What we know:
Elements: E1 2-3, H1 11-14, E2 32-33, E3 43-46, H2 47-61, E4 65-69, H3 85-89, E5 94-96, H4 101-113, E6 117-121, H5 132-139, H6 142-145, E7 155-159, H7 175-179, E8 185-187, H8 192-204, E9 209-213, E10 221-224, E11 233-234, E12 241-244, E13 249-253, H9 256-269, E14 275-279, E15 282-284, H10 288-298, E16 301-304, H11 313-323, E17 335-338, H12 348-351, H13 358-368
Keywords: Metal-binding, Mitochondrion, Oxidoreductase, Potassium, Pyruvate, Thiamine pyrophosphate, Transit peptide
Pfam families: Transket_pyr, Transketolase_C
Function: The pyruvate dehydrogenase complex catalyzes the overall conversion of pyruvate to acetyl-CoA and CO2.
Amino acid sequence: MFGAVTRKASLVQAGLFRAPVRSVPLRMVAPIRRSFASESKEEEITVRDALNSAMEEEMARDESVFLLGEEVARYNGAYKVTKGLLDKFGEDRVIDTPITEAGFCGLAVGAAFAGLRPICEFMTFNFAMQAIDQIVNSAGKTHYMSAGGVTCPIVFRGPNGAAAGVAAQHSQDYTSWYGQLPGIKVVSPFDSEDARGLMKAAIRDPNPVVFLENEILYGDAFPISEEALSDNFVLPIGKAKVQREGKDITLVSHSIGVLQSMKAAKQLEEEGISAEVINLRSIRPLDIDTVIKSVKKTNRLVTVEGGFPAFGLGSEICAQIMETEAFDYLDAPVERVTGADLPTPYAKNLEGLSFPTPEIVTKVAKRALYRS
């Protein structure tokens, strides 16, 4: 391991009714479910706009979808991800809440039990700690405890992991926290295509979905195909994407870690090393089969994540590789690149040493190739 020093339901029943809500007919369109968009006729949109458009389209498609959270309405969201939704859907479906995560999260879970499809925004997943009981015990376990009688179709979304200059209490990566929980699906998009397709999938899913975004990526623009911009484009939860093909070593990551891995792959290419980059997209369920297939080809594996090194996502992937037939194909020990094993410092120079960089990923990859 190398730690970087990374039905419609009634609003009255849900207790949310304030004024009549105009009925929006469901469009009978079968969703496109592909692991990636085609490469033709691409334009660029930001991750922020991709998330916004996905929520807008799903709210227009299904009147049971509504959004709540701190500053999501009149302020357009702390990161402007919900911009314009209040104007289009009104205050009955885009709801500003008090600063009480336990309260509005519990309300959203109850609304999901009543048949609505809430999108519950946390200004950051660090604040979701205030609502951990509602997420884990109420949303995550009620379907099982009711013998399938009660579903909880809810999306918990917001920025996760490190940002810039927000120090220890606002910088944690909760991927492994939620990834270990049965009853909850966890997704972590990287680019604009991921954001659109996975958000639509999460909203339509009958299960609770933790949707881990990244603050630094919100303003980044990525190419996106005409197909991925269609209203019925949905990516399957539980399927990874080979972001870049290679033959010498496999780099596995999610969210902003994919960006670091792609930059590292370019650095490695300059030295004649062909790196394959896997964008996990989905944390739970985890598409380990795609990782196994890649390791069988490259014979080497490096995992990249921004979370703490102990008991992390990289540890789980490495363990599963060691427990499967992929172990027989390894020509070197598996390697991990993680965040530093300490609370995130506030000082900019120390913060920069606390998370994976392309240079660190490159160094670890070369070590796995015995070229360090």
